[in-house]
Amino acid sequence: MARIDTFFRLMNVQGASDLHISSGNVPALRIKGELHRIKYKEMEDNELREMLYEICPEHKVKVFEEKGDIDFAYELPSVGRFRSNYFRQAHGISAVFRQIPSEIMTIEQLGLPVVTKRMANLPKGLVLVTGPTGSGKSTSLAAIIDYANKTRRGHIITVEDPIEFIHKSYNCIINHREVGRDTLSFSAALRGALREDPNIIMVGEMRDLETISLAVEAASTGHLVFATLHTQDACKTVNRVIEVFPAEVQEQMRNTLSDSLRAVISQALFKRKDKKGRIAALEILVHTPAVGSLIREAKTQQLINVIQTGKRLGMCTMDDSIEALVNDNLIEAEDAFEKASDKARFVKYLKEIPEEYKELFENQEATNNPQ
């Protein structure tokens, strides 16, 4: 047994999502979104390096020594799988491990809206799942792929770095490819996928121009492509995809994206107040002719208006989703206020207005209620 396995077993017992272990620090667990230090000694670089290298594939050690950071997946039988990231910092080597659930949660278990099932059965197009690191993008995407796997008959290819959720082939054939092990890069895997008769391609992360370009091309040539981005809402997501391209081809990309983009799901994760765990608020944009026109005409700032008026199609703004969680007594009002865009909307739920916002809301109240 590797020495670090003890920490992974502790993660399970404590219900932690992440393990932070770094030179010059005491190890810590992230529980319900907050870091808690473990009763353990401060780790020294040489000792920690030896411990971490014990579970790291040899070829990954070489990459780490050259580049200073790596990603890979580690599995501890009967305990779980862990997405692992090693990196160098001022005091030496450090690592963060994210636990990957052994069982893929369904759309129903996650409380995702029905519209996500329709996304799983689209014949073609691009569906983007976005949000900051740790917002549950991979979990939601795994549930959608799982639904497609059980309701369609086709070929699904996933490209990840590293592979997180392991899907069994049900009605579909699923092939998992890991960057660095099975393919040189996301872009190389995407080029290959176009010759591998896929119905669905899942890209773990669109990191660069070439990967984004190939994903959009695949979506526009008859494939259903799911991918993640580190953006916070639908408008920023569309702009991010377009602005990564050189200025001279951005208009062409707008035209292509206006036809191929089928949906954007943006997530924010909250601590639950009713029980252990976390819950996601979702902003959902679904393609309509109006959405296509706004993308083509570079009026993406108006997409929020389409979302607000598109509820019957399954669309939802982030603030609407957050407010629904507050009204259902699932999250704390203070957490909702912190992550909401229209903070004035959530003041009525607060026990006390934060000092830095009092003047703003007093002025706003005076404007709305003149004497």
Blueprint (SSEs and pairs):
Layout: H1 5-14, E1 18-22, E2 28-31, E3 34-37, H2 45-53, H3 58-67, E4 69-76, E5 80-89, E6 92-100, H4 107-110, H5 115-120, E7 125-130, H6 137-151, E8 155-160, E9 173-178, H7 186-193, E10 200-203, H8 209-220, E11 224-229, H9 234-243, H10 250-260, E12 261-271, E13 278-286, H11 289-296, H12 303-309, H13 318-327, H14 333-339, H15 355-368
Parallel strand pairs: 7-11, 7-12, 8-9, 8-10, 10-11
Antiparallel strand pairs: 1-2, 1-6, 2-3, 4-5, 5-6, 12-13
Short description:
The chain has 371 residues and is an alpha/beta fold. It contains 15 helices and 13 strands. Strands 9-8-10-11-7-12-13 form a seven-stranded mixed sheet, with helices on both faces. A six-stranded antiparallel sheet has the order 3-2-1-6-5-4, covered by helices on one side.
In words, what does this structure look like?
- The chain is α/β, with parallel strands linked by helices and 371 residues long.
- It folds into 2 domains: 5-100, Beta-Lactamase (2-Layer Sandwich); 107-327, Rossmann fold, CATH 3.40.50.
- It has 15 helices and 13 strands.
- The chain has helices at 5-14, 45-53, 58-67, 107-110, 115-120, 137-151, 186-193, 209-220, 234-243, 250-260, 289-296, 303-309, 318-327, 333-339, 355-368, and strands at residues 18-22, 28-31, 34-37, 69-76, 80-89, 92-100, 125-130, 155-160, 173-178, 200-203, 224-229, 261-271, 278-286.
- The strands form 2 sheets. The chain has a 7-stranded mixed sheet, sandwiched between helices. The chain has a 6-stranded antiparallel sheet with strand order 3-2-1-6-5-4, with helices on one face.
- A hairpin with a 5-residue loop joins strand 1 (18-22) and strand 2.
- The longest helix is centred in the middle third of the chain and has 15 residues, at 137-151.
